[in-house]
Every structure is written in C-alpha cells, then in structure tokens.
Design a protein that fits this description.
The chain is an alpha/beta fold. It is 39% helix and 17% strand. It has three domains: 234 residues, 2-enoyl-CoA Hydratase, Chain A, domain 1; 187 residues, 2-enoyl-CoA Hydratase, Chain A, domain 1, CATH 3.90.226; 35 residues, no CATH class. The structure holds hexanoyl-coenzyme A (HXC).
C-alpha cells in the first residue's frame, strides 16, 4: 500500500515537472512553429531511447522574488539516448520556463551531462533556446556559463559536440555553440547574437530586426557561425541523424564502416564533368559524387564561402573528409572565409581520425585590397597550418589549375600529403600562363611589331612548357598522373595502404596556429 501511495506521488511529481512553463507558455512556443524541449529530444532520438535525469532539480535563488518562483527542471531537460543505435548525451533548454535562461542549477544540469559525455566517450548534443544569463541570478549565471565554456574547450577534439539553435539565443547562450564542432540552424526559428536589437539601438543607435541581425540565413551564409541550415525543425533533426552516421563517437575510434557501394556513374560520369577549357567552370560536387560511395556527399557549410566545398563521404565504406576548390564560385580561389572554413574542417577530420581527400583546381589566393586588409595573410596561413599539422592519411588529386600559393596550400606533398595524383589536365605552375607571359616576356611583347601576336605566342610557349602535370611529376611532387576514371580506384588503394599510418609530431605542449 505504502509503495502504491509513493508511486502515485512520484507520478504526480513527474506530471508537474513535465508541464514545464505551463500551457500558456507552451501555446506561445507552438504558435511560432516551435516544438517543446522534450518533443525536440524525442523527435531527434531513436524511439523510446530517451532517458531523462535530474528532472526534479530546482534553483535555490532568492533575490528579485526568485524564492517565490518555481521553475520546473530549472528550464533545461537533460538525458541520454541513441541515434541510429549510437549513444549520445543530450540537453534541451526549455524556453517555456523563464525563457530558457541560464541560472546556476540549469548550468549544473548541463555541465553534469557534459561530464557524462566525456566519461562515456559519446557525442554531446545541445539544443539551445535561451535568453542567456538569468538576470536575477547575477554572477552565478555567469559562473554557470564559464563552467560550460571550460568543458566545451576540454571536450574539443575528444568527443563530437553538436549545437542546435532553436530559438532566440542571446548573450552567453551563443558562445557555447561557437566553441562546438557543428552548429545547426532553422529558418525563422534560430537567432543568435551577443547583444540584441534593443541594446544595439540604445547603445549605438543602429536599428535592425532580430532576423537581419542574427537569423538563420545570416549565420549560414554570411558569418559562417552555422554549419547546417534547415527549413524546419524536423529537417534539422534529419541532418543531425545523417551527420552522426559519418563521425566516430570519440577521438579514440573510427567512424562506423558501411557496406561498399559504387558511385551512381550514370548521373555523375567523371569523364564528362570537367571542361577541357581551363577557364570554363564546373561543379566540383559532381566530381566528388562521381568518386564516392553511392554518390552520397554530406556537405558542411554549403551556403558559406562556397568557393570551397567541404563535407563527408565514404570510399569503400570508410568515412573521408573532402576538401575541394569550387570553380563555380570565384573560380575556386582561396580567400579569408574559405581558408577559415577549410582549416577548421581539416582540424576536425584530423582530431577524429577521418582521412582527408583534397581536390585541387584554383588560380591561387584572391588578390585585392579588401582581402589584404581583411587579413588574408593570417587567415590564409590557417589552411597551411591545418594541413601541415594533420597526421591522418592525406590524399590529393590535382584536377586542373594548381597555381602559386594555392598549389602549396591545397595539401601538396610539401605539406606532407601521403599521395598526390594529377589528371592529365592538371596545370601546376607559379601562376597562370597569361599572367606569367605578361611578366617574364614583358619587354619582348612591348617592343614587338605585333605585340598581341607575340603575347599569344609567348603564352603558348609557357603553356606548353609548364601548364601540365609532367614538370611536377618529373620532380616527384606528383606520385602518379592518372586518368580521371581511375581516381576512385587510386584513392581507395591509397586509403587501404595508409590504414596503419603512424606519424609522431615533435614534442610540444601545443602549437600556436594563426587563429
Ligand atoms: C531572465 C529571462 C531572460 C533572462 C528571457 N527571460 N530572457 N529571464 N533572464 N536573460 C524571461 C522573460 O522575462 C519572460 O518571462 C520569458 O523569459 C519569455 O521571454 P519573452 O521576452 O516574453 O520572450 P520573447 O518575446 O520571445 O523574447 C525572447 C528574448 C528576450 C529575445 C530572448 O526575452 C530577451 O531579449 N531576453 C534578454 C536577452 C539578453 O539580453 N540576454 C543577455 C543576458 S546577459 P515571463 O515571466 O514574462 O514569462 C548574458 C551574458 C553572458 O547572457 C556572457 C557570457 C559570455
């Protein structure tokens, strides 16, 4: 009898806790197309796999009448579950409870589940929907954020950290996502900013809407703070589920192997993708799809710095990270944003034992005052650093242009690529034939009777001598010149024989990359 009474008391307490901020707040949440915190977790995880902890945690604050306020679960839901059978730790902020604001108890729930994730060696997923530091709790809220940031940093490169932005995330609420590996945003729902429109208007007089300041598109296209953009919460959860299949649980493991599948070559025929005219653009994603298993390429940061393409795919069932210049956008040049984008991805793959495949076709770094003043030297150096530092198998294919700094930066042998292949269409030189001829034959062209004729002739001379892969191959900088339709076979073989690659970097506490 006593057990029955106690069980019914437990059920009553659970029911109260599960109501979150109450029906009115939940209705408000739904009216703007948002799910509640628990609904989100259930939609993301495998059916019936979610196990919630710390449901009865409450705050102990008393200033500003806080002692009179009950905040169920202190505004955050935490627990464990699985995605496609993979274990994960998860938390979701509950906006219906004090706007998901972060007080000390709320922070302690998050740091506890983060500590679990580290101990268990599994990904941590944070669903963020929060007004930031809980104002009434003062410095205790700031302490809570500090504890989260510290753990984000300790966990970096050890377990995958995934942030999902599903509401207005202001102040401290945006810095934890910024420290994590992948940030997901949803059109019209996600907002991220350090200070909101009101504060901006008061302090510096600028007027801007929340959406224009820090909406999903702004972060997916302009700032690069977001890695994945979705049109609905459900699409966002599907993206996360797919990502989880490509990455390992922790840095001691490899990603799950999948059954080998041939590319869909009827749609992506490698021989027909790249135009013979080196000035004609093409979509490098088609080349990737013509090489990888099942033509299944999972692109990361698709909308940001589109002159470089990064993402996950599989070769003979094994996850690899592709980094490829995109001739379709700005001729595939490297610039400030594309260098940042690629460098971070290279470091992610290296930290999580994911081999790198680099496809090269670029005229070099983007010239111009804007780029120089935006710090292209410092940002461009990041990609050199990331490739040089990476010890996972590194395979490179030069498709067409590999000029100047771009040749070196895109994982050349000099940055310790393990294998560098080139198609017969490759052009490896200090710069393009036109530019080179104009400089080294300047006087001859200027003094000629028919300068244009001589210029053309000199360009051809330079092209014949250098615009091919054979000079580099003669020096051993290219391991093999291959036919395009041999690319997949060569990469798979190179991957197989690199599987026991061991490289010991010089002993140091850590390097100092050009952050
Ligand atoms: C306490 C908060 C809160 C906060 C929201 N609420 N943010 N309570 N601390 N930071 C409460 C509201 O009072 C309200 O309570 C409920 O949550 C819902 O909020 P609304 O304003 O009604 O919702 P909405 O209109 O959708 O606006 C959402 C919002 C707005 C844009 C997030 O609430 C807002 O601007 N909040 C403050 C954002 C901010 O400046 N945060 C920075 C904190 S400083 P009731 O009881 O009325 O339902 C910070 C520094 C950390 O984070 C630095 C670390 C590096």
């Amino acid at each position: 009898m006593a057990l029955k009474r106690k069980t019914s008391d437990l059920k009553k307490r659970m029911r109260n806790a599960l109501q979150g901020g109450g029906s009115k707040a939940i209705e408000k949440q739904k009216a703007i197309g948002k799910l509640t915190a628990r609904e989100r977790i259930i939609a993301l995880l495998d059916p019936r796999s979610f196990h919630e902890y710390d449901i009865f945690v409450e705050h102990a604050a008393h200033d500003f009448d806080m002692d009179k306020k009950r905040l169920p679960g202190d505004g955050v839901v935490t627990g464990t579950g699985t995605i496609s059978g993979h274990p994960v730790c998860i938390y979701a902020q509950d906006f219906t409870v004090a706007g998901g604001s972060l007080g000390l108890a709320h922070a302690k729930k998050i740091t506890k589940i983060m500590d679990h994730a580290m101990k268990l060696g599994v990904p941590i997923i944070g669903i963020n929907d929060s007004g930031g530091a809980r104002i009434q709790e003062g410095v205790n809220s700031l302490a809570g954020y500090g504890e989260i940031f510290y753990r984000n940093t300790q966990a970096s490169g050890v377990i995958p950290q995934i942030s999902v932005i599903l509401g207005p995330c202001a102040g401290g609420a945006v810095y934890s996502p910024a420290l994590t590996d992948f940030v997901f945003v949803v059109e019209n729902i996600s907002k991220m900013f350090i200070t909101g429109p009101e504060v901006i208007k008061t302090t510096i007089g600028e007027v801007i809407s929340m959406e224009d300041l820090g909406g999903a598109r702004v972060h997916a296209e302009t700032t690069g703070n977001a890695h994945f953009f979705a049109m609905s919460e459900q699409e966002c959860f599907d993206q996360i589920k797919e990502l989880i299949t490509f990455i390992p649980w922790n840095n001691q493991k490899k990603a799950d192997a999948f059954p080998k599948k041939a590319p869909r070559t009827r749609t992506y025929n490698i021989d027909g993708i790249v135009p013979t005219d080196p000035k004609q653009p093409y979509d490098v994603r088609h080349v990737i799809k013509s090489i990888c298993d099942d033509s299944d390429f999972f692109e990361v940061q698709e909308l940001f710095a589109a002159n470089i393409v990064i993402g996950f795919a599989r070769l003979k069932g094994e996850t690899v990270g592709f980094v490829a210049n995109q001739p379709l956008v700005l001729a595939g040049v490297l610039d400030v944003d594309s260098s940042d984008k690629a460098a971070r991805f290279i470091r992610y793959c290296d930290a999580f034992n994911i081999p790198l495949v680099t496809l090269v076709d670029l005229p070099g770094y983007l010239p111009g005052v804007d780029q120089e003043h935006a710090g292209v030297i410092r940002h461009g150096a990041k990609i050199l650093y990331a490739y040089s530092e990476a010890t996972v198998p590194k395979l490179t294919v030069v498709i067409r242009k590999a000029y100047g700094g771009g040749y070196i930066a895109m994982c050349s042998h000099h940055l310790r690529a393990d294998f560098v292949f080139a198609w017969p269409t490759a052009e490896i030189a200090v710069m393009g034939p036109e530019g080179a001829a104009n400089i080294i034959f300047r006087n001859e062209i200027k003094n000629a009777e028919n300068p244009e004729e001589v210029r053309k002739q000199k360009v051809k001379e330079y092209k014949d001598k250098f615009a091919n892969p054979y000079v580099a191959a003669a020096h051993g900088y290219i391991d093999a010149v291959i036919e395009p339709n041999d690319t997949r076979r060569m990469l798979i073989h190179a991957l197989e024989i690199s599987s026991n690659k061991q490289e010991t970097p010089p002993k140091k506490k850590h390097g100092i990359p050009p952050f």
